[in-house]
Inverse folding.
């Protein structure tokens, strides 16, 4: 159960520390996007390890759902802002 709590805490902490992407530079947003994608991969790897140690498929599915929902929401937010900023910068440079 400690491993489950640790995974949930990591996901919750990530969600709680969302940044103001609107005020960031494109380069910084790109790094944030890479970071969240890496975080998603690491979370899924931990969930798979948990799944191999435990036979509670429902709990593993729940962890997967929380992880995916949280990270996908942040990825979508970052992508939208990133694309707007690229469009704005590209259109302004013409």
């Amino acid at each position: 159960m400690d491993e489950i709590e640790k995974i949930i805490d990591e996901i919750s902490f990530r969600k709680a520390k969302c940044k103001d992407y609107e005020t960031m530079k494109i380069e910084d947003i790109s790094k944030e996007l890479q970071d969240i994608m890496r975080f998603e991969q690491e979370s899924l790897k931990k969930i798979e390890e948990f799944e191999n140690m435990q036979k509670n498929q429902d709990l593993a599915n729940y962890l997967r759902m929380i992880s995916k929902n949280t990270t996908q929401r942040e990825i979508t937010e970052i992508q939208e802002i990133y694309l707007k900023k690229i469009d704005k910068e590209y259109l302004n440079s013409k």
About this structure: The helical segments are 2-16, 26-53, 57-93.
